[in-house]
Amino acid sequence: MNPMPELSPSLKQLRLSGILDSLETRNREAIAGKLAYTDFLALLITDEIARRENKKFTTRVRRAGFRSHKTIEQFDFDFIPTLNRAAIQDLATCRFVEEHANVLIAGQCGTGKSHLAQALGHCAVRKGYDVSFCSQTQLLGGLNAARATATYERRFHALVRVPVLIIDDFALKPLRSPADEDLHDLIAERYERATTVITSNLDLAEWGEAFPNRLLGAATIDRLRHGAHHLTLEGESYRAPRPTPEATKYSVAKRSKNGK
To answer: Comparing 166 with 22, which gets the higher pLDDT?
Structure first.
């Protein structure tokens, strides 16, 4: 007997329609294995929980705005042998998110800063945290554009509330007013309330110099650095050009006067 026609409307009404995806299979397993009704029900509930968690995970990844699917498992630690692998694995547990601690990642171009930041973001998503990934330009440009549509406060507070905010390429472009003030206000509001992950090509000691107002920069960086995890990635660029094969030399025959 197929129970789906009778159960389908009720499951949809209870917002449990996902159970329909595995109901027929589980029903056959229950009959073949002579499962008790409670065991059969437990299997269906477990399937529904897994389906909902997977849907939440997919939604969080989409909302995070990652540039690509970069994970800790894909990170090439051998490429940067000086990097403390144990420290990265500890960060992957996301205790830093629970502690509202920041992660500051510095290094030259192409050393994997963005990959590592996004990988930590993926770890946070797996743990159930909401994450937002953007470049400094996207972040501050979006806030400035929100002023024109009278949505600045809503956008600003959405950024304040997100548990993990990842700002990529800090100080790649110079900060100008009011962008420097926006960044300071955002960091000040998130201070000891939420986690901010920042990548930059500048050495950590130079971050304050990115602000035209040095006093504002000092106040911002002081909050970022307090209790933060500092990572410096040193090494060759992942994006170094591939060596080109030697060009094949072709001999060119000279044409004679008669064209031969």
So the answer is: 166
CA distance 2 to 180: 64
For residue 109, what are its two tokens? 């171009």
CA dist 230 → 88, 171, 175, 240, 258 (Å)? 11, 17, 22, 25, 75
**Helical axes 20-33 vs 4-13, angle rounded to 10°:** 130
pTM of the model as a whole: 0.80
- Cα–Cα dist 163/81, whole Å: 31
Q: What is the DSSP letter of 176?
A: -
What type of residue is 242? R
Give the CA distances from residue 83 to residues 22, 92, 111, 173, 219, in Å, rounded to whole numbers and listed in that order: 45, 14, 11, 27, 29
Do 110 and 235 form a contact (C-beta atoms < 8 A)? no
The answer to whether 104 touches 136, Cβ cutoff 8 Å, is no
Q: In what order do the strands lie in the sheet with 229-233?
A: 131-135, 164-170, 195-200, 103-107, 229-233
How many Å apart are CA 119 and CA 97, to the nearest integer? Answer: 14
Q: What is the SS3 assignment for 114-170? A: HHHHHHHHHHHHHCCCCEEEEEHHHHHHHHHHHHHCCCHHHHHHHHHHCCEEEEEEE
- Containing 199, the helix (H) or strand (E) segment is strand 195-200
Q: Give the residue, 29 or 250, on which the prediction is more confident.
A: 29
Which amino acid is residue 54, in one-letter code? N
In the prediction, which pLDDT does 78 show?
A: 84
- Token pair recorded at residue 208: 């304050």
Q: Provide the mean pLDDT of the chain.
A: 88
